[in-house]
Design brief:
A 6-stranded antiparallel β-sheet has the order 3-2-1-6-5-4. It has a 6-stranded mixed β-sheet with strand order 8-10-11-13-12-14, covered by helices on one side. Strand 1 and strand 2 form a beta hairpin. The chain has 23 helices and 14 strands. The chain has helices at about 5-30, 35-60, 65-85, 95-120, 120-125, 135-155, 160-190, 195-205, 210-215, 230-260, 265-280, 285-300, 305-320, 325-335, 375-380, 390-395, 405-410, 440-505, 510-535, 550-560, 580-600, 630-635, 650-660; strands at about 345-350, 355-360, 370, 385, 415-420, 425-430, 545, 565-570, 575-580, 605-610, 615-620, 665-670, 675-685, 700. Helix 1 packs antiparallel against helix 2 (about 35-60), helix 3 packs antiparallel against helix 4 and helix 7 runs antiparallel to helix 9 (about 210-215). It is elongated and about 145 Å long. The chain is about 60% helix and about 10% strand. By secondary structure, it is of the alpha+beta class.
Length: about 700
């Protein structure tokens, strides 16, 4: 690679770097003179770098053009520095000293341009003998003026704003200092050093990141530069590792050269030891935490990349692999924000009492603990984090809050994060001291309080889900117990009737046989009820093929003995369904009992078995009091709604649910003072050839 190639690459790198900076500024620039001057300075530097690169590459003598463009580049950066001081809120305004300095700079720039355009020899005719090269001298003066501008900018800026411009000052001072060194050398040796000139492009390119960081810290410059924290972290680690390895290599070289016969041995052992030490440091959690904190404080206007923090937090909360509980995921998600290795979480358990949910690497008192009312009141009203270290040194900061001793006594206890849900304290999280010393401020507290709210919503949802599950279990048990009570009521009615008839027919052998049969059936039914209760809320289905005609005939006959107004009509004999026979019998008996209760002494109840479209259809029709349409639609099938004295209001509801379980449906048609027809349709095992029966006026439920 030739010297010209090196110069070309150097200045081409500078041109590309300032092009990127200029484009970033243009894309986000809306208005404001500071941003405009930054664009102008970048453009002037880019054009100068391109001209210098072309000068090296082409071999043409473009020295005058490059020199003029260099002066314009220097003037552009001086104008930008002046705009920063004049238009930005970093200082108290322009001083008289500053005005004199900027006026002098403008005069020197014009003089330098005149010297380049007019020619060195022509200008020397007007100067005394022995005067230095006027072109080099004026550019040296410009570099000195540039250093003075940087110094005045930093000195006149307000102390609280210096963090925003310090990288700009470092970069600009470095650029002018290099120019001063190069032109001082040129005046001493009467020519510009080629090596210094060729290196100048890369030197200028190196200041671009510094200017970009300052622009990032000053939104009024209208530049929105995104620099990845991860990239800076890994870059800083790699650079540090590189410097460390180079230093260790130098020490190793010294040991080999001056260690005598054992020099190579000393070098090998030392380098191995150095690599082990570097690996321990690089993979140390404390080192990584400290480096991240340094980068956040010195390279970014905010300590956190909120997008990354939020995504990591949600990812930790949503992680279900490994069987980690929700409290554990909450602790890890919040602790990772401040690099805390230990934490514990408590949930509210009554007034001023908290129950330990779980710990993560922390030793904390178990069970329910009491707190002072001021502790809960402070967390709910202030909605911020309590720093126990700050509380110990400046208790007045926390409005006389009393932190329980059982919290303060926990080793390395550090931050108390409130878990607020609907403005109420759902619990709190305790974090231990981080792996490396870490300064915290309001930005940390706001972030922790925000994620604490999100965590509280997760924990509250978990508690609500558990409470709902328990309520559903109780609801299922209560519902099933209510159904059992309904069946017991029917058994009591049947046995009561048996006792009443026993006084008249106890000596009748036929009655005695019926009584034994009835008691035996009642015992079987009660055993079945016990099985249903013992099933823990699950139905014990004993489905079988049930032929309907014999079942209906048996039910009707048992009722007809005590009530002569009941009739049974069917022309079918082999139609059957798949069902639990005992539950189907109970449903049919209940519908018949309801129909009988709804009729007066002269009323009639008809039970019919029909077939239609592959379904077995059971009708229970009466000419009793009937029901209006609104009652059927809104009340009939709602549980615990009844118009009968001593009723539970769940018989019809349970009947419909059982019919639905079998894949059937229940239909009701009724009118006030005209009677009611309840039609139950069930999938039949075999179809009949009977003609379809009209079903007009029926409401399907």
């Amino acid at each position: 690679m030739t010297f010209a190639d090196i110069g070309f690459i150097s200045y081409a790198t500078s041109a590309f770097a300032f092009l990127v900076l200029m484009m970033l500024t243009l894309v986000s620039w809306r208005s404001g003179p500071v941003g405009a001057w930054l664009v102008a300075a970048c453009a002037a530097t880019m054009v100068w770098s391109l001209a210098a690169a072309y000068n090296f590459w082409s071999g043409h003598d473009l020295t005058t053009l490059v020199a003029v463009l260099e002066i314009l580049r220097t003037a552009g950066w001086m104008a930008f520095l002046s705009a920063v001081l004049f238009f930005s809120p970093v200082s108290g305004g322009l001083t008289t000293h500053w005005r004199i300095l900027t006026g002098s700079v403008a005069f020197i720039c014009l003089t330098a341009v005149f010297c380049e355009i007019s020619g060195k020899e022509n200008v020397r005719n007007f100067l005394p003998g022995g005067f230095p090269d006027p072109a080099l001298f004026t550019r040296l003066l410009l570099s000195v003026a540039g250093i003075m501008l940087v110094e005045n900018l930093f000195r006149n800026s307000r102390r609280e704003h210096r963090w925003g411009i310090k990288f700009l000052c470092f970069g600009a001072a470095g650029m002018f200092a290099y120019d001063f060194f190069m032109y001082s050398d040129a005046l001493l040796f009467y020519r510009v050093n080629d090596d210094l000139d060729a290196s100048r492009g890369v030197i200028n390119a190196l200041i671009v990141p510094l200017i970009a960081l300052s622009a990032r810290r000053n939104p009024q410059w209208s530049i929105d530069v995104f620099v990845s924290r991860h990239a800076i972290f890994h870059s800083a680690t790699l650079i540090g590792a590189g410097v460390y390895l180079l230093s260790m290599a130098a020490v190793g070289f010294y040991l080999r050269e001056f260690g005598g016969e054992l020099g190579s041995v000393f070098q090998t052992v030392f380098l191995f030891f150095a690599i082990i030490c570097m690996a321990l440091v690089v993979f140390s959690g404390a080192f990584r935490a400290r480096l991240k904190d340094i980068i956040s404080q010195n390279f970014f206007s905010h300590k956190y990349d909120y997008r990354d923090e939020w995504l990591r937090f949600i990812s930790t909360f949503s992680l279900t692999e490994g069987g980690l509980s929700l409290p554990r995921r909450v602790m890890e998600g919040i602790a990772n924000i401040v690099e805390s290795p230990e934490s514990a979480v408590w949930a509210a358990d009554g007034a001023d009492r908290f129950n330990l949910l779980e710990t993560w690497n922390m030793v904390a008192p178990k069970g329910v603990q009491s707190t002072d009312p001021s502790f809960v009141r402070f967390l709910e009203e202030e909605q911020t984090v309590i720093n126990l270290s700050e509380l110990a040194s400046a208790p007045e900061t926390y409005s006389d809050v009393v932190v329980p001793a059982w919290i303060s006594d926990i080793p390395r206890a550090w931050l108390i994060v409130p878990l607020l849900h609907h403005e109420r304290l759902h619990g709190f999280l305790l974090l231990a001291q981080p792996r490396a010393p870490r300064s915290v401020n309001r930005e940390d507290y706001v972030l922790l309080a925000t994620v604490g709210r999100q965590a509280a919503s997760y924990l509250a949802e978990r508690a609500s889900a558990r409470a709902l599950a328990e309520a559903q279990q109780f609801d299922e048990f209560n519902r099933r117990f209510a159904f059992v009570l309904h069946d017991i009521k029917n058994l009591v009615s049947q046995l009561s009737l048996l006792v009443q008839n026993a006084e008249k027919h106890k000596n009748n052998p036929a009655f005695q046989d019926d009584m034994l049969e009835t008691v035996e059936e009642s015992v079987d039914k009660m055993n079945a009820l016990l099985v249903r209760l013992h099933a823990g809320g699950k139905e014990v289905a004993v489905n079988a093929i049930v032929v309907l005609k014999p079942l209906l005939q048996k039910i009707v006959n048992s009722v007809a003995e005590r009530n002569r107004k009941l009739t049974f009509e069917t022309s079918l004999s082999g139609i059957a369904v798949v069902a639990d026979e005992e539950r189907l019998r109970a449903v049919i008996a209940h519908l018949i009992d309801n129909a009988l209760e709804a009729t007066t002494d002269g009323g009639r109840v008809a039970v019919r078995l029909l077939a239609r479209g592959g379904d077995a259809i059971l009708e229970v029709a009466d000419n009793g009091t009937g029901m209006d349409e609104e009652f059927i639609r809104n009340e009939l099938f709602r549980p615990f709604r009844t118009t009968k004295e001593g009723g539970f209001g769940i018989g019809v509801y349970e009947s419909r649910e059982f019919v639905r379980e079998l894949g059937g449906r229940m239909e009701v048609v009724s009118a006030r003072d005209q009677g009611t027809t309840i039609r139950v349709s069930l999938p039949a095992m075999q179809s009949a050839n009977d003609a379809d029966i009209g079903l007009r006026g029926i409401e399907v439920l």
